[in-house]
Amino acid sequence: MTVKIFIKRKVPGKNSVELALLLQKMRGLTLNQPGYISGETLKRIDKNDECMVISTWRSVEDWNTWVNNDRRIIVQSEIDNLLGGETEYAIYE
Question: 3-class secondary structure for the chain?
Fold first, then answer.
């Protein structure tokens, strides 16, 4: 059964360009992962400092494999350091 991952981040305005580059890097890595179906990045209209990535995976196991991927962990660490906080994840089926 497919799962959708909702990834929420608070983005200070001064970091939006750097974040966009890191998200592109992450997306490039994600495209080659087994079980990855699609993803989109949305910017919240009423709160300029918030964005949401919605990622679709074939299974929660495929998502968990990706979460534990060493290359993903490095880029995610760069994102969290840039934003000064941890990224929030929610998994839905």
Answer: CCEEEEEEEECCHHHHHHHHHHHHHHHHHHCCCCCEEEEEEEECCCCCCEEEEEEEECCHHHHHHHHCCHHHHHHHHHHHHHHCCCCEEEEEC
For the entire predicted model, the pTM comes to 0.88
% of the chain residues with pLDDT over 70: 100
Question: The domain that contains 49 carries what CATH number?
Answer: 3.30.70.100
Domain that residue 19 falls in: 3-92
Residue 74 tokens read as 């490095």
Instruction: Give me the number of domains the chain comprises.
Output: 1
For 59-77, the pLDDT digits (tens) are 999 999 999 999 999 999 9
